[in-house]
């Protein structure tokens, strides 16, 4: 399915305000409410819209520390990668896990209360992940900007 300019306007608006009413959205994108609703349903059905979520404030939830962890595995065999990916997906403090090209095999985005809490996460979870040969952690000092919006 090809996206036209109206589809792109709908996607941009929904990325900014996912709880916008269909009436407001149709006004923003210059469509009738019924046509707008059909377009949104089609974008959902085609998989362009995966889900609707609430973005939470990490500071208010006492998880203000972001740590990026580079993981190097002992090997690249499928079973090593699969075992690591299966177990890392179970770590509640890991927000993202990316298979990388470069010096590290994986890059994790982890949230913690503070350095002590990260030490707990490291001991309890990260150090026990299968196939890990090396780990390098970098603490974010400040988030300059953050978005979940894709360029549409």
Automatic annotation (TrEMBL):
GO terms for cellular component: cytosol. GO terms for biological process: regulation of DNA-templated transcription; response to amino acid. The keyword Disulfide bond does not apply. It comes from the Bacteria. It holds the Pfam family AsnC_trans_reg. The keyword Transcription applies. GO terms for molecular function: sequence-specific DNA binding. InterPro entries: ArsR-like_HTH (IPR011991), AsnC-type_HTH_dom (IPR000485), Dimeric_a/b-barrel (IPR011008), Tscrpt_reg_AsnC-like (IPR019888), Tscrpt_reg_AsnC/Lrp_C (IPR019887), Tscrpt_reg_HTH_AsnC-type_CS (IPR019885), WH-like_DNA-bd_sf (IPR036388), WH_DNA-bd_sf (IPR036390). PANTHER family: LEUCINE-RESPONSIVE REGULATORY PROTEIN, TRANSCRIPTIONAL REGULATOR AZLB. This is Lrp/AsnC family transcriptional regulator.
């Amino acid at each position: 399915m090809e996206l036209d300019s109206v589809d792109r306007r709908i996607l941009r608006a929904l990325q900014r305000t996912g709880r916008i009413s269909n009436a407001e959205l149709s006004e923003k994108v210059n469509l009738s409410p019924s046509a707008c609703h059909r377009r949104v349903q089609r974008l959902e059905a085609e998989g362009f819209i995966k889900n609707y979520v609430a973005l939470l404030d990490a500071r208010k939830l006492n998880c203000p520390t972001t740590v990026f962890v580079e993981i190097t595995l002992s090997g690249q065999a499928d079973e090593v990668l699969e075992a690591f990916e299966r177990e890392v997906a179970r770590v509640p403090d890991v927000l993202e896990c990316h298979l990388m090209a470069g010096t590290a095999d994986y890059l994790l985005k982890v949230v913690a209360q503070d350095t002590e809490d990260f030490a707990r996460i490291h001991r309890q979870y990260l150090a026990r992940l299968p196939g890990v040969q090396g780990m390098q952690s970098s603490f974010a000092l400040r988030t300059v900007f953050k978005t979940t919006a894709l360029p549409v």
